[in-house]
Each structure stands twice: as C-alpha cells, then as structure tokens.
Amino acid sequence: MNNGFICKSCGKYHDELPMSYGSAVPDYFFDIPVDEQESRVEMNDDLCIIDDKYFFIRGNIEIPVIDTNQKFIWDVWVSLSEENFDKTNDFWEDPEREKKLDPMFGWLSTDIPCYPDTINLKTMVHTRTVGLCPVIELEPTKHPLAVEQKEGISIVRIKQIAEELCDSEE
C-alpha cells in the first residue's frame, strides 16, 4: 500500500510515500525577528508561548486513508486560551489526563501547504494519554482539509502532496 512514487517535481524515485508532515513551530513564530526570538518565545517540542500572551499546543490532524486502516497525519500547532493552556500544563504529566480534560477550542496556527489558507480554522483539541499528541479536530466546513478529515484521503491525493512537498535535495 505504501509504495514509492516517481516525483513529478524532482524526477526521482522515492521508495516510501510519506504519511505525515509537520511544522516545528507555530506560524506566528516566523513574524518575530530572529534577534528577538529568544526573549519573546518560550517553547519545547509540544508547547509554545509567545510574548507571554499567545499560547500554542502541538497536535495531530489525523485523516483516514480511504480503503485502508491507516491515517495520514498533519503535525500542527493550535492556539489555546491562556486558561486552557494552563489547564493543559496542570495535567501534562497526569496519567489520566485524557479523562480529566474536556476537548478545548483552538485556532489552527499552522499554514498547511497543499490547501487554501488554513490559519485560524476552528478546531477542537482532544487530549490523549501522556506521550501522545492531542488529536486536532477541525470544525466541519467545506474547507478541503476539513472535508478530507471527515471523508478520508486517497492514496492518489497523498502522492500529489508528496510530489508538491518533495525536497529535491534528498
């Protein structure tokens, strides 16, 4: 199922079809001048605070792959209210955190390539057990990403994404 593909962008054969892509930082990070990042940003792999007033959590948009039991994943950042961010921190290491935290509203804070603008799409953040990123559920709309999350994504579409995001330097 996860066969390779000949990339239309670089012309090379890639022996694996990537099933996930991600962003290391929320897009708002890129608005901060490099010389100010250290003083204005506090972050680790999963949480980020910018200017002590913007709060972000990293999570996964999971999209079912049609006719398989696999998922295609976008690793993204979502903004949370300060209150929900604090709750998340309070339960971060709690082994039953997924039972104690209700889904939280957030705004998608990653511009996902291969789709129309994704910044500020409405989401719900669903906490999972310690060690797993939250699942990010998009508000059901006609946005192509929300439609794919609801209806699934085809292998052909995943190959199109892989070709668009191909790093020809590999």
TrEMBL record:
Q: Which Pfam families match?
A: DUF2199
InterPro entries, A to Z = DUF2199
Protein name as catalogued: DUF2199 domain-containing protein
Q: Organism source for this protein?
A: Gottfriedia luciferensis
